[in-house]
């Protein structure tokens, strides 16, 4: 029985096998994949994830060292001076709303969880500023509980790969989760997001410089010609990614290596 893929020719088993191959290719392509928000505990990750809404991880990482030093515990956010907190997080945008979320998060943690971030999805999603996506990030990266993070990159890529036709993030999470081993969910999420930021961009994916060409039904969405595609690779490992795709690394311009990954 086929369920969510728009491909009429591919069986569920065929899709699962292709998904696993995609997973292995991503593991090879992105050995450096990790949570790109700097943190050393669950509270810091929760705070960084709230700040990352409509903001690059890089910008968040510039703000958080000072923030984490000033507010080391949930009680510190609960009793924060609003103006001071707003100033600290201003560079991440939407700083008034985010300040609100951080103060209310601190208060809820103090009132209901003894100041600790809980390690269960059902508890996490009741906290201010924490939706299911954020909760899965926290579970996967601070508690070692496997979780799939369906962000904008993840959605775009699993659609391009036709692993699911679902559009609701929770349904995507379940549909894609069923294709992979649960223990792989967290790292899979990082690798998919890495691929979306460095290779399979929203507007112009680097199809001709991608290691997934044989597994991807959307090959050709972006330039397939090597020189044009190599220019689209991004990040410090852009040249390694070109080599992995069988291209001359010199086709990748210096600015592509230096560019900030969104
Ligand atoms: S072949 Fe193109 S559309 Fe498919 S994953 Fe690679 S970059 Fe994305």
From TrEMBL:
The keyword DNA damage applies. Binds 1 [4Fe-4S] cluster. It comes from Micromonospora echinospora (Micromonospora purpurea). It catalyses: 2'-deoxyribonucleotide-(2'-deoxyribose 5'-phosphate)-2'-deoxyribonucleotide-DNA = a 3'-end 2'-deoxyribonucleotide-(2,3-dehydro-2,3-deoxyribose 5'-phosphate)-DNA + a 5'-end 5'-phospho-2'-deoxyribonucleoside-DNA + H(+). This is Endonuclease III. GO terms for molecular function: 4 iron, 4 sulfur cluster binding; class I DNA-(apurinic or apyrimidinic site) endonuclease activity; DNA binding; DNA N-glycosylase activity; metal ion binding. Belongs to the Nth/MutY family. It is an enzyme of class 4 (lyase). Its EC number is 4.2.99.18. One of its GO terms (biological process) is base-excision repair, AP site formation. [4Fe-4S] cluster binds at residues 200, 207, 210, 216. Residues 51-198 form the HhH-GPD domain.
